[in-house]
What does this fold into?
Amino acid sequence: MPEAFDAVDVIRAKRDNNRLSDPMIDWVIDAYTRGVVTSDQMAALAMAIFLNGMSREEIVTWTTAMMNSGIRMNFDSLGRPTADKHSTGGVGDKITLPLAPLVAVFGVAVPQLSGRGLGHTGGTLDKMESIKGWQAEVSDKQMMEMLGQNGPGAVICAASADLAPADKKLYALRDVTATVDCIPLIASSIMSKKIAEGTDSLVLDVKVGSGAFMKDQAQARALAETMVALGTDAGVRTSALLTNMSTPLGLMIGNALEVQESIEVLAGGGPSDVVDLTVLLAEEMLRLAGKPDEDVRAALNDGRAMDHWRAMVEAQHGDLDAPMPKAKHSEVVYAESDGYVETMDAWGVGICAWRLGAGRTRQGEKLDLGAGVQIHAKPGDYIKKGSPLLTLFTDTPEKFARSIEALDGAIEIGSEKPTSVTPLVLDRIDAK
Ligand code: URA
It folds into this structure.
């Protein structure tokens, strides 16, 4: 059978800023999944979309076509509500790790299908793989058992190859063609997977600031509104929080380091920004799942969330008693003057951790799981000249010099205590 369209015509239409028709979009996504539209052609189309955008109607059709490229999951047989959270990506964003078991404490099942790092932002699966033996792949049967009444109630795992396969190809292609930070492509990527996943409710953590793909609040709000509308129209109760990503989240950036910090949070400790965001997102997921009055913080402090975490990790063969990967080399960055830390730029610190080996520079590259950055003072803290500001970790000491270059201008120390620190949550977007 001849193909319905020619890829060159579709690329030319978007290059010339024309609207793509529904049949064109359906065809191009299907033909890309089948390998008829090549990666070169899809890269050109993604760049044309990046430059010229898409209308609301095009985004809806594009998202639906990506969702229809694979299977649609269904958790109705669990007999309990399901809720999920998705972050648009940030620096030090390990919230999924404590959040999934925490929400499960309250009888809401959390099917957290997660991804790998994208650009300078970390990926939940990469972090979890720091735990010895932990397996990202689970069968459908095992997932249902884990989410059922007798399981931990939460699962963090890789989406199966047949869930939105068009996005799997396009996500990897965008990562290496500078077409990530584009509202239509991010919204359709996230929502095609989340709608196909079959969750009843979904909370979107839309990051704003230097360490996020959306650098300003207006862009982040537009992305959040687009995604909330896509989810709501598809029958998923969806809301979004716009959260601050101008400063890294917590004190640890890097895969094993972030797992350690998450375990501190599950043990009732941890940095206050990580704890507060975990609690706020858990409350939002429970609100959407019809359980608005639960005492979420108590479940972190009394060990219930930790019990669910242990059961969840052990079900995927993770050994929490085994030592975490530890970098062979470290180097300390010291404060150059006395004063208050005024700013700590998430982009600079994120690139530093990525260059140390916490993120990939090529598709499929093996990560240095112990690599990353430990922060000793955050904005608002007073620090003495010569005290440790950051510790950098890597297995490859030749990486220190370029990683430290990424910190140029990223940290400002001043004599006045900063009067305003950007709040953690900047806004909330509900379904209209
Ligand atoms: N997360 C996704 O799943 N897709 C994107 O495009 C960006 C973040």
Summary: Residues 7-53 form one domain. The chain has a mean pLDDT of 95. The CA atoms of residues 10 and 24 lie 7 Å apart.
